[in-house]
Specification:
This protein has a domain at 91-117 and 239-398: Rossmann fold (3-Layer(aba) Sandwich), CATH 3.40.50.1100. 38% of the residues lie in helices and 15% in strands. The chain has 15 helices and 13 strands. The chain is globular and about 70 Å long. 51% of the residues are buried. The structure holds ligand F0G. Residues 118, 120, 143-147, 214, 245-251, 309-310, 354, 356-357, 384-385 line the site of ligand F0G.
Length: 434
């Protein structure tokens, strides 16, 4: 099996060894992707092998990423794999969420069940393993919180030095706390995500630090496993829609590559449609997809949303996302109020998620109302992060203190505020209706 880096721009098509430390095409500046040449086995045998590995005690087999390693065979030596047993995330039925959106059924693929509580672990295990293989000593990323938490954990376990740069005051404490606990050198920069990405790219080059943002094509390889595991859990029955929040657009790029490769290998017999949902105040891809054309992408220089995970105005992977969504998909946007209510509804299902993840349900509701998603369509929505990532947001919503970025009050349509009571059995009993 040959693996190599290829320029994503078809007009360039340059190829590079998989061991070259590059993140963009040195010839044309285009994005890179990992490609493979050679036999990967027949689909029936692959599916059997992956099922059998679920009974194994081997770390690689226990990982919901590396179990599917035939789909991203870029490492030569499996000893380079750094795994925290990521993936293995469930498909959960959200009945209340389905009726809220006006459809028969929604299944949530909950990436918040990952070791550091977000989908980033699926990609980070791959990116960190590549860093180890390359002999890198330091790794870095800019992050709205989850990438940094994930990178810090994987780097710590791999014995690498993690350096994270985050927009000062703009990430949820759960995420910042994780990075500190995992021992990352943490720099809070007075700039937004997009500006810091430009900065960290220069620093990485200058200091020989390995960059682990989703511009790193090996992260994208790992994130393909989210849709591969999803299809495995659905017994390879392709859903009509896969719905995902969009920020830097790495995840949708990975999903698109993943399903195309599964179709090519005969693991699935058709492609799903994709719906990407952005927060209204940070929706440059939504704007672009209204009238997509070469050279027509305009960044939003002042992205704003309480869903800080997707507060990104200049998503680096938009060309790859376009490749996927442009063929058979749609982009929607959701307001702060819509995201907040959808999040509370997902909570009421006993599932819970962080704000950015709830953009999925808000988007589904709008797409159903617009007639784009049918009430009988089979839908899988990807919840990208754990409910505990941003408890401050939850508390504010339920206690009527949540304000949008412009300072306007949001309404707690599903608010469930805690009640302060005296230490008195009679009073409490009365309150509980006894
Ligand atoms: N949901 C959550 C919870 C995220 O943390 C992110 C991205 C996204 C959705 C969007 O995914 O960028 O692949 O389109 N968080 C990044 C970070 C940017 O730094 O943690 P995307």
């Amino acid at each position: 099996m040959r693996s190599f880096l290829a320029c994503f721009e078809a007009a360039c098509g340059a190829e590079y060894p998989v061991t070259e430390v590059i993140y963009n095409c040195p010839k044309c500046g285009g994005l890179l992707e990992v490609r493979y040449e050679g036999e990967r086995g027949d689909p029936w045998t692959l599916k059997q092998t992956w099922r059998e590995r679920r009974m194994s005690n081997q770390p690689l087999d226990q990982s919901g990423v590396w179990r599917y390693r035939e789909m991203f065979p870029f490492l030569e030596d499996e000893r380079h794999v750094m795994t925290l047993r990521e993936g293995n995330t469930p498909l959960l039925d959200g009945c209340l969420a389905a009726s809220y959106a006006g459809v028969r059924r929604i299944r949530f693929k909950h990436q918040g069940f990952n070791p550091t509580g977000s989908f980033k672990d699926n990609g980070m295990t791959a990116g960190t393993s590549q860093a180890v293989r390359l002999g890198m000593k330091r790794v870095a990323c800019v992050s709205t919180g989850n990438t940094s938490a994930s990178m810090a954990a994987y780097a710590a376990m791999a014995g690498l030095d993690p350096i994270i740069l985050i927009p000062n005051g703009n990430i949820a404490f759960g995420k910042l706390g994780q990075a500190l606990d995992y021992g990352a050198k943490t720099l809070q920069v007075e700039a937004n995500f997009d500006q810091i990405l430009a900065l960290v790219r220069v620093l990485a080059e200058k200091l020989g630090i390995y960059l682990l943002n989703s511009v790193n094509p090996f992260r994208i390889e790992g994130q393909k496993s989210i849709v591969i595991e999803m299809m495995d859990q659905l017994d390879w029955e392709v859903p009509d829609w896969i719905v995902v929040p969009g920020g830097n657009l790495g995840n949708i790029s990975a999903f698109g590559k993943g399903v195309r490769e599964m179709l090519e290998l005969g693991l699935i017999d058709r492609l799903p449609k994709f719906a990407v949902v952005q927060a209204e105040g940070a929706s440059p891809f939504y704007e672009f997809m209204k009238d997509p054309k070469e050279g027509g992408f305009t960044a939003n220089t002042h992205p704003e949303t309480l869903a800080t995970a997707i507060k990104i105005g200049d998503p680096v992977s938009w060309p790859k996302a376009w490749q996927t969504v442009g063929v058979n998909g749609v982009v929607e946007k959701a307001s702060e109020q819509e995201i907040a209510d959808a999040k509370a509804v997902i909570g009421r299902c006993g599932i819970g998620c962080e704000p950015a993840s709830a953009a999925t349900l808000a988007g589904i509701k709008k797409l159903v109302a617009a007639g784009r998603i049918g009430p009988e369509d089979r839908i899988v929505a990807v919840l990208t992060g754990n409910v505990l990532k941003d408890p401050d947001y939850i508390y504010r919503y339920h206690t009527g203190q949540l304000k949008d970025p412009a300072g306007r009050d949001l309404i707690g349509n599903f608010a469930n505020p805690p009640v302060v009571v005296p230490n008195d059995v009679e009073v409490i009993a009365k309150l509980l209706g006894a």
